UniProtKB/TrEMBL annotation:
The chain crosses the membrane at residues 68-89, 110-132, 138-159, 186-204, 210-227, 239-259. GO terms for cellular component: mitochondrial inner membrane. PANTHER family: 4-HYDROXYBENZOATE POLYPRENYLTRANSFERASE, MITOCHONDRIAL, PRENYLTRANSFERASES. This is Diterpenoid pyrone biosynthesis cluster protein C. It comes from Clonostachys byssicola. InterPro entries: Prenyltransferase, UbiA_prenyltransferase, UbiA_prenylTrfase_CS, UbiA_sf. Pfam families: UbiA. Keywords: Membrane, Signal, Transferase, Transmembrane, Transmembrane helix. Its cofactor is Mg(2+). It is a multi-pass membrane protein. Coiled coil: none annotated. Residues 1-29 form the signal peptide. Belongs to the UbiA prenyltransferase family. It is found in: Membrane.
Length: 283
């Protein structure tokens, strides 16, 4: 989404770095979560066999491993323009605070969304686009970020239904517990919010029909099917949709973005030729 607003660069190389950074930092987030929850995880059937929870790894060794993960993440971050440090480092506050959120609010999934979606803000400065001097880029980044927050809350609400009984016993708060009886209505609202914000991001970025049909239309179809079919009372079904739903919806959104970028990339030379012809006529 950011590339058409940027000076010519390697979008594939930047995407590969983002993939690597996301993989490392998601791992670090899981490690931090397991450290915070080492006394809660043994009380939940699904998490009781995690390494720290079952005593296979000491908290100190977990802390050391987390430190190496964070250093590796920093190694990826410094490959981007220097300005990205100002965006990347504050995200650690969200990474560290998510495990605490489930102890004080029924909406820890919102904090998780703020954490997992942070790359949407970083993609623009990573390609040299200054968000504070480009109103369209700022609007696109903000809407894309908010869209991803809504999506994260949506799929993690399904995920939370797997542990709903154990969470209630252990005193762990979640949006699934708070809205158990109206979960599908909440999921529908989140889906509408996600798609609306995604469309707004595309509009601000000047996206074309491929994006709106592929990314927005694809998300509408895949999320609609998931919300209709998921059996929230079945742990196995919730797990299947959590894992595969993320790939399916994320896949169509990504393909729509890639298709839109490809169309605009190949249209650019033709547009430049037209400008040259007009310039020659005027001269």
């Amino acid at each position: 989404m950011a590339m058409p607003m940027a000076t010519p660069g390697t979008v594939l190389g930047t995407s590969a770095l983002f993939f690597t950074g996301a993989l490392i930092m998601r791992g670090a987030g899981c490690s931090i979560n397991d450290l915070w929850d080492r006394n809660l995880d043994p009380q939940v059937t699904r998490t009781r066999l995690r390494p720290i929870a079952r005593g296979a790894i000491t908290p100190f060794k977990g802390l050391v491993f987390t430190g190496f993960q964070l250093l590796a993440g920093l190694g990826v971050l410094v490959q981007f323009p220097f300005e990205c440090l100002y965006y990347g480092i504050p995200s650690l506050l969200f990474v560290a605070s998510y495990p605490l959120a489930k102890r004080v609010t029924y909406y820890p999934q919102f904090v998780l969304g703020l954490t997992f979606s942070w790359g949407a803000m970083m993609g623009f400065p990573a390609l040299g686009v200054n968000l504070f001097s480009n109103a369209d880029a700022l609007a696109a980044a903000a809407c894309l970020y908010a869209s991803n927050v809504a999506w994260t809350v949506l799929y993690d609400m399904i995920y939370a239904h797997m542990d709903i009984k154990d969470d209630a016993k252990a005193g762990i708060k979640s949006i699934a517990l708070k809205h158990d009886k109206e979960t599908k209505q909440v999921l529908t609202g989140l889906a509408v919010t996600q798609i609306g914000l995604l469309a707004a991001a595309g509009y601000a970025a000047g996206a074309g029909p491929v994006f709106f049909l592929g990314s927005c239309g694809g998300a509408l179809a895949t999320l609609g099917i998931m919300i209709k079919r998921v059996n929230l009372k079945s742990v196995k079904d919730c797990w299947w949709w959590f894992v595969n739903g993320c790939w399916i919806t994320g896949g169509v959104v990504s393909l729509g973005l890639a298709g839109d970028y490809a169309v605009r990339y190949y249209q650019q030379p033709a547009e430049l030729d037209e400008i040259d012809i007009e310039t020659e006529k005027e001269s």
